[in-house]
Amino acid sequence: MQFILLGIFLIYHPKGNRTSNRILAAFLFADALFSLYVPFFNNFSGFFYEYRIHFFRITEPLRFLLGPLLYFYTVSLTSSDFKLKKKHLWHALPFILNYLLLLIFFHFKSYEAKVEILNSNNRFETKWLYFNFYCFYSQFFIYLIACLKKIKNYQKNIKNYFSSLEKIKLSWLKLIIIAYILNWGIDLLNNLINIKTVSMDFFLMMAIFSALVMFVLANLMIFKGLLHPYLFIQSQSHSYNKKYKKSPLTPELKTRYLNHLLEYIEKEKPYLMFNITLGELSSKSKIPVHYLSQVINEVLDKNFYTFINEYRIKEAIKMLSHPKCERKSITDILYEVGFNSKSTFYSFFQKITGETPSAFRKKQNH
pTM of the full predicted structure? Predict the structure, then answer.
Protein backbone atom coordinates (compact mmCIF):
# COMPACT_ATOMS: atom_id res chain seq x y z
CA MET A 1 0.00 0.00 0.00
CA GLN A 2 2.85 2.37 0.80
CA PHE A 3 4.34 1.82 -2.67
CA ILE A 4 0.97 2.62 -4.24
CA LEU A 5 0.64 5.85 -2.26
CA LEU A 6 4.22 6.90 -2.96
CA GLY A 7 3.71 6.13 -6.64
CA ILE A 8 0.64 8.36 -6.75
CA PHE A 9 2.62 11.08 -4.96
CA LEU A 10 5.42 10.91 -7.52
CA ILE A 11 2.98 11.10 -10.43
CA TYR A 12 1.46 14.33 -9.14
CA HIS A 13 4.64 15.77 -7.61
CA PRO A 14 5.07 19.18 -9.32
CA LYS A 15 8.86 19.41 -9.03
CA GLY A 16 11.70 17.57 -10.72
CA ASN A 17 11.91 15.46 -13.83
CA ARG A 18 8.33 14.33 -14.44
CA THR A 19 9.40 11.52 -16.76
CA SER A 20 11.72 10.08 -14.10
CA ASN A 21 9.08 10.46 -11.41
CA ARG A 22 6.44 8.65 -13.46
CA ILE A 23 8.77 5.80 -14.40
CA LEU A 24 9.72 5.36 -10.75
CA ALA A 25 6.00 5.42 -9.87
CA ALA A 26 5.35 2.65 -12.44
CA PHE A 27 8.23 0.66 -10.92
CA LEU A 28 6.64 1.01 -7.46
CA PHE A 29 3.22 -0.04 -8.77
CA ALA A 30 4.66 -3.12 -10.50
CA ASP A 31 6.71 -4.07 -7.45
CA ALA A 32 3.72 -3.64 -5.11
CA LEU A 33 1.34 -5.71 -7.26
CA PHE A 34 3.97 -8.37 -7.95
CA SER A 35 4.57 -8.76 -4.21
CA LEU A 36 0.89 -9.55 -3.69
CA TYR A 37 1.22 -13.00 -5.26
CA VAL A 38 3.42 -14.22 -2.40
CA PRO A 39 0.98 -13.96 0.53
CA PHE A 40 -2.33 -13.98 -1.37
CA PHE A 41 -2.15 -15.86 -4.67
CA ASN A 42 0.52 -18.50 -4.19
CA ASN A 43 -0.93 -20.75 -1.47
CA PHE A 44 -4.29 -22.42 -2.08
CA SER A 45 -4.86 -24.34 1.11
CA GLY A 46 -7.50 -23.20 3.56
CA PHE A 47 -10.05 -20.42 3.40
CA PHE A 48 -11.33 -19.04 0.07
CA TYR A 49 -9.60 -21.78 -1.93
CA GLU A 50 -12.31 -21.76 -4.60
CA TYR A 51 -11.87 -18.02 -5.10
CA ARG A 52 -8.12 -17.69 -4.82
CA ILE A 53 -7.49 -20.36 -7.43
CA HIS A 54 -8.77 -17.92 -10.06
CA PHE A 55 -5.93 -15.55 -9.09
CA PHE A 56 -3.17 -18.15 -9.40
CA ARG A 57 0.09 -16.17 -9.77
CA ILE A 58 -1.94 -13.51 -11.56
CA THR A 59 0.42 -10.66 -10.60
CA GLU A 60 3.67 -12.63 -10.88
CA PRO A 61 4.38 -11.68 -14.54
CA LEU A 62 4.68 -8.05 -13.40
CA ARG A 63 8.19 -8.79 -12.18
CA PHE A 64 9.25 -8.90 -15.83
CA LEU A 65 8.60 -5.14 -15.87
CA LEU A 66 10.92 -4.37 -12.94
CA GLY A 67 14.15 -4.60 -14.96
CA PRO A 68 12.94 -2.47 -17.92
CA LEU A 69 11.41 0.17 -15.62
CA LEU A 70 14.56 0.46 -13.52
CA TYR A 71 16.58 0.76 -16.73
CA PHE A 72 14.29 3.46 -18.13
CA TYR A 73 14.49 5.29 -14.81
CA THR A 74 18.29 5.25 -15.04
CA VAL A 75 18.22 6.43 -18.66
CA SER A 76 15.80 9.25 -17.79
CA LEU A 77 18.29 10.55 -15.21
CA THR A 78 21.27 10.32 -17.54
CA SER A 79 19.73 11.59 -20.81
CA SER A 80 18.13 15.02 -20.86
CA ASP A 81 15.97 14.38 -23.94
CA PHE A 82 14.71 10.92 -22.98
CA LYS A 83 11.03 10.24 -23.57
CA LEU A 84 9.13 6.98 -23.60
CA LYS A 85 8.11 6.06 -27.14
CA LYS A 86 6.24 3.26 -28.87
CA LYS A 87 9.52 1.61 -29.83
CA HIS A 88 10.22 0.99 -26.14
CA LEU A 89 7.23 -1.33 -25.89
CA TRP A 90 9.32 -4.30 -27.03
CA HIS A 91 10.89 -4.26 -23.55
CA ALA A 92 7.49 -5.45 -22.28
CA LEU A 93 7.47 -8.57 -24.49
CA PRO A 94 8.65 -10.97 -21.72
CA PHE A 95 5.85 -9.65 -19.49
CA ILE A 96 3.24 -10.02 -22.24
CA LEU A 97 4.44 -13.50 -23.22
CA ASN A 98 4.47 -14.63 -19.60
CA TYR A 99 0.96 -13.33 -19.07
CA LEU A 100 -0.37 -14.96 -22.26
CA LEU A 101 1.08 -18.34 -21.32
CA LEU A 102 -0.46 -18.10 -17.87
CA LEU A 103 -3.85 -17.20 -19.34
CA ILE A 104 -3.82 -19.84 -22.07
CA PHE A 105 -2.59 -22.76 -20.01
CA PHE A 106 -4.42 -22.00 -16.80
CA HIS A 107 -6.78 -19.05 -16.40
CA PHE A 108 -8.87 -19.66 -19.53
CA LYS A 109 -9.73 -23.13 -18.23
CA SER A 110 -12.69 -24.05 -16.05
CA TYR A 111 -12.55 -24.26 -12.27
CA GLU A 112 -12.51 -28.06 -12.38
CA ALA A 113 -9.69 -28.08 -14.91
CA LYS A 114 -7.66 -25.67 -12.76
CA VAL A 115 -8.06 -27.90 -9.71
CA GLU A 116 -6.98 -30.92 -11.73
CA ILE A 117 -3.90 -29.10 -13.05
CA LEU A 118 -2.77 -28.06 -9.58
CA ASN A 119 -3.43 -31.53 -8.11
CA SER A 120 -1.76 -33.54 -10.88
CA ASN A 121 1.57 -34.04 -9.08
CA ASN A 122 2.18 -30.33 -9.41
CA ARG A 123 3.43 -30.73 -13.00
CA PHE A 124 2.09 -27.38 -14.15
CA GLU A 125 3.50 -25.65 -11.08
CA THR A 126 6.93 -27.19 -11.68
CA LYS A 127 7.04 -26.23 -15.37
CA TRP A 128 5.83 -22.73 -14.56
CA LEU A 129 8.39 -22.36 -11.79
CA TYR A 130 11.30 -23.36 -14.03
CA PHE A 131 10.13 -21.16 -16.90
CA ASN A 132 9.83 -18.09 -14.68
CA PHE A 133 12.98 -18.93 -12.82
CA TYR A 134 15.32 -18.92 -15.84
CA CYS A 135 13.56 -16.16 -17.77
CA PHE A 136 13.25 -13.66 -14.95
CA TYR A 137 16.75 -13.92 -13.52
CA SER A 138 18.32 -13.76 -16.99
CA GLN A 139 16.28 -10.70 -17.91
CA PHE A 140 16.65 -8.85 -14.61
CA PHE A 141 20.44 -9.23 -14.37
CA ILE A 142 20.85 -8.08 -17.98
CA TYR A 143 18.90 -4.91 -17.23
CA LEU A 144 20.79 -4.25 -13.98
CA ILE A 145 24.12 -4.56 -15.78
CA ALA A 146 22.80 -2.23 -18.49
CA CYS A 147 21.90 0.28 -15.74
CA LEU A 148 25.42 0.16 -14.32
CA LYS A 149 26.89 0.65 -17.80
CA LYS A 150 24.63 3.68 -18.37
CA ILE A 151 25.70 5.23 -15.08
CA LYS A 152 29.38 4.57 -15.82
CA ASN A 153 29.14 6.26 -19.22
CA TYR A 154 27.18 9.14 -17.69
CA GLN A 155 29.76 9.70 -14.94
CA LYS A 156 32.50 9.76 -17.56
CA ASN A 157 30.58 12.06 -19.88
CA ILE A 158 29.55 14.71 -17.32
CA LYS A 159 33.21 15.57 -16.74
CA ASN A 160 33.11 17.26 -20.13
CA TYR A 161 30.35 19.64 -19.03
CA PHE A 162 30.51 20.19 -15.27
CA SER A 163 33.14 21.37 -12.81
CA SER A 164 31.47 19.88 -9.71
CA LEU A 165 30.02 16.39 -9.78
CA GLU A 166 29.05 15.60 -6.19
CA LYS A 167 25.34 16.33 -6.63
CA ILE A 168 24.87 14.86 -10.09
CA LYS A 169 27.08 11.78 -10.44
CA LEU A 170 24.32 9.38 -9.32
CA SER A 171 26.55 7.32 -7.03
CA TRP A 172 23.49 6.67 -4.85
CA LEU A 173 21.68 5.02 -7.76
CA LYS A 174 24.72 2.92 -8.60
CA LEU A 175 24.87 1.63 -5.01
CA ILE A 176 21.14 0.82 -5.04
CA ILE A 177 21.48 -1.14 -8.29
CA ILE A 178 24.45 -3.06 -6.89
CA ALA A 179 22.31 -3.84 -3.83
CA TYR A 180 19.58 -5.14 -6.15
CA ILE A 181 22.15 -7.39 -7.84
CA LEU A 182 23.32 -8.75 -4.47
CA ASN A 183 19.74 -9.28 -3.28
CA TRP A 184 18.60 -11.16 -6.35
CA GLY A 185 21.94 -12.95 -6.53
CA ILE A 186 21.38 -14.38 -3.04
CA ASP A 187 17.83 -15.26 -4.01
CA LEU A 188 19.08 -17.00 -7.16
CA LEU A 189 21.70 -18.95 -5.22
CA ASN A 190 19.11 -20.17 -2.73
CA ASN A 191 16.83 -21.26 -5.56
CA LEU A 192 19.62 -23.11 -7.37
CA ILE A 193 20.56 -24.97 -4.20
CA ASN A 194 17.07 -25.76 -2.99
CA ILE A 195 14.80 -25.76 -6.03
CA LYS A 196 14.34 -29.57 -5.98
CA THR A 197 14.41 -30.27 -2.28
CA VAL A 198 13.09 -27.27 -0.40
CA SER A 199 9.51 -26.94 0.81
CA MET A 200 7.06 -24.35 -0.49
CA ASP A 201 7.25 -22.63 2.90
CA PHE A 202 10.94 -21.92 2.32
CA PHE A 203 10.24 -20.48 -1.14
CA LEU A 204 7.57 -18.24 0.35
CA MET A 205 9.92 -17.11 3.10
CA MET A 206 12.65 -16.24 0.57
CA ALA A 207 10.14 -14.46 -1.65
CA ILE A 208 8.95 -12.38 1.31
CA PHE A 209 12.56 -11.59 2.24
CA SER A 210 13.33 -10.43 -1.30
CA ALA A 211 10.17 -8.35 -1.33
CA LEU A 212 11.23 -6.67 1.92
CA VAL A 213 14.69 -5.87 0.53
CA MET A 214 13.09 -4.48 -2.63
CA PHE A 215 10.84 -2.41 -0.40
CA VAL A 216 13.81 -0.91 1.43
CA LEU A 217 15.76 -0.19 -1.78
CA ALA A 218 12.78 1.42 -3.51
CA ASN A 219 12.20 3.61 -0.47
CA LEU A 220 15.84 4.68 -0.62
CA MET A 221 15.34 5.82 -4.22
CA ILE A 222 12.31 7.85 -3.19
CA PHE A 223 14.07 9.24 -0.13
CA LYS A 224 17.06 10.41 -2.18
CA GLY A 225 14.75 12.08 -4.66
CA LEU A 226 12.76 13.90 -1.99
CA LEU A 227 15.78 14.81 0.11
CA HIS A 228 17.70 16.10 -2.91
CA PRO A 229 15.20 17.32 -5.51
CA TYR A 230 17.99 18.05 -7.99
CA LEU A 231 18.40 14.30 -8.45
CA PHE A 232 15.21 14.36 -10.50
CA ILE A 233 16.45 17.33 -12.51
CA GLN A 234 18.31 16.20 -15.60
CA SER A 235 21.74 17.67 -16.09
CA GLN A 236 22.20 19.85 -19.15
CA SER A 237 24.26 17.40 -21.16
CA HIS A 238 24.52 17.65 -24.92
CA SER A 239 25.14 15.06 -27.57
CA TYR A 240 28.36 15.97 -29.32
CA ASN A 241 30.54 13.98 -31.68
CA LYS A 242 33.30 12.92 -29.33
CA LYS A 243 35.97 12.81 -31.98
CA TYR A 244 34.77 15.99 -33.72
CA LYS A 245 35.18 14.35 -37.10
CA LYS A 246 32.77 16.71 -38.78
CA SER A 247 33.83 19.86 -36.95
CA PRO A 248 34.61 22.82 -39.23
CA LEU A 249 37.08 24.18 -36.67
CA THR A 250 40.42 24.79 -38.42
CA PRO A 251 43.82 24.70 -36.67
CA GLU A 252 43.98 28.49 -36.91
CA LEU A 253 40.59 28.90 -35.24
CA LYS A 254 41.59 26.39 -32.56
CA THR A 255 44.64 28.47 -31.71
CA ARG A 256 42.59 31.68 -31.70
CA TYR A 257 39.92 30.22 -29.45
CA LEU A 258 42.53 28.68 -27.15
CA ASN A 259 44.38 31.98 -26.68
CA HIS A 260 41.10 33.79 -26.06
CA LEU A 261 40.00 31.14 -23.56
CA LEU A 262 43.25 31.17 -21.57
CA GLU A 263 43.29 34.97 -21.53
CA TYR A 264 39.71 35.09 -20.30
CA ILE A 265 40.38 32.44 -17.63
CA GLU A 266 43.40 34.30 -16.28
CA LYS A 267 41.67 37.67 -16.26
CA GLU A 268 38.13 36.90 -15.10
CA LYS A 269 38.76 33.73 -13.06
CA PRO A 270 35.37 32.10 -13.79
CA TYR A 271 36.60 28.92 -12.08
CA LEU A 272 35.93 30.62 -8.74
CA MET A 273 32.20 30.20 -9.41
CA PHE A 274 30.62 27.21 -7.70
CA ASN A 275 29.34 24.58 -10.10
CA ILE A 276 30.26 26.49 -13.29
CA THR A 277 29.33 24.48 -16.37
CA LEU A 278 30.68 24.30 -19.91
CA GLY A 279 27.60 26.13 -21.15
CA GLU A 280 28.09 28.98 -18.69
CA LEU A 281 31.77 29.35 -19.57
CA SER A 282 30.81 29.35 -23.25
CA SER A 283 28.33 32.16 -22.67
CA LYS A 284 30.78 34.25 -20.63
CA SER A 285 33.78 33.75 -22.93
CA LYS A 286 31.72 34.15 -26.13
CA ILE A 287 33.13 30.91 -27.51
CA PRO A 288 30.55 28.53 -29.06
CA VAL A 289 30.01 25.63 -26.69
CA HIS A 290 30.90 22.98 -29.28
CA TYR A 291 34.18 24.71 -30.14
CA LEU A 292 34.97 25.33 -26.48
CA SER A 293 34.52 21.65 -25.74
CA GLN A 294 36.67 20.70 -28.73
CA VAL A 295 39.49 23.07 -27.75
CA ILE A 296 39.59 21.78 -24.17
CA ASN A 297 39.36 18.12 -25.20
CA GLU A 298 41.58 18.10 -28.27
CA VAL A 299 44.10 20.91 -27.82
CA LEU A 300 44.53 20.75 -24.06
CA ASP A 301 43.80 17.00 -23.93
CA LYS A 302 41.57 17.42 -20.85
CA ASN A 303 37.94 17.25 -19.94
CA PHE A 304 36.15 20.33 -18.62
CA TYR A 305 36.09 18.96 -15.06
CA THR A 306 39.88 18.63 -14.92
CA PHE A 307 40.47 21.91 -16.76
CA ILE A 308 38.49 24.00 -14.25
CA ASN A 309 39.66 22.20 -11.12
CA GLU A 310 43.32 22.51 -12.07
CA TYR A 311 42.87 26.29 -12.16
CA ARG A 312 41.18 26.12 -8.77
CA ILE A 313 44.15 24.23 -7.35
CA LYS A 314 46.57 26.81 -8.79
CA GLU A 315 44.57 29.52 -7.03
CA ALA A 316 44.62 27.51 -3.81
CA ILE A 317 48.40 27.12 -4.07
CA LYS A 318 48.76 30.91 -4.35
CA MET A 319 46.60 31.45 -1.28
CA LEU A 320 48.39 28.78 0.77
CA SER A 321 51.72 30.41 -0.14
CA HIS A 322 50.61 33.99 0.60
CA PRO A 323 51.34 35.45 4.06
CA LYS A 324 47.99 37.28 4.09
CA CYS A 325 46.15 33.95 3.99
CA GLU A 326 47.99 32.36 6.92
CA ARG A 327 44.99 32.65 9.23
CA LYS A 328 42.56 31.21 6.71
CA SER A 329 41.73 27.56 7.20
CA ILE A 330 42.20 25.10 4.37
CA THR A 331 38.43 24.58 4.35
CA ASP A 332 37.86 28.32 3.84
CA ILE A 333 40.37 28.37 1.01
CA LEU A 334 38.90 25.39 -0.85
CA TYR A 335 35.48 27.06 -0.84
CA GLU A 336 36.93 30.40 -1.94
CA VAL A 337 38.61 28.87 -4.98
CA GLY A 338 35.36 27.23 -6.16
CA PHE A 339 35.35 23.73 -4.69
CA ASN A 340 32.32 22.47 -2.81
CA SER A 341 33.78 19.10 -1.83
CA LYS A 342 36.72 18.48 0.48
CA SER A 343 37.43 15.08 -1.02
CA THR A 344 37.62 16.47 -4.55
CA PHE A 345 39.87 19.34 -3.42
CA TYR A 346 42.27 17.04 -1.56
CA SER A 347 42.32 14.56 -4.46
CA PHE A 348 43.20 17.20 -7.06
CA PHE A 349 45.69 18.94 -4.76
CA GLN A 350 47.64 15.75 -4.11
CA LYS A 351 47.50 14.81 -7.78
CA ILE A 352 49.05 18.15 -8.82
CA THR A 353 51.48 18.84 -5.95
CA GLY A 354 52.17 15.34 -4.69
CA GLU A 355 51.34 16.31 -1.10
CA THR A 356 48.43 17.29 1.09
CA PRO A 357 47.39 20.95 1.50
CA SER A 358 48.52 20.86 5.15
CA ALA A 359 51.96 19.53 4.25
CA PHE A 360 52.28 22.05 1.43
CA ARG A 361 51.37 24.98 3.73
CA LYS A 362 53.75 23.78 6.42
CA LYS A 363 56.58 23.63 3.90
CA GLN A 364 55.84 27.18 2.73
CA ASN A 365 56.08 28.52 6.27
CA HIS A 366 59.58 27.17 6.82
Answer: 0.77
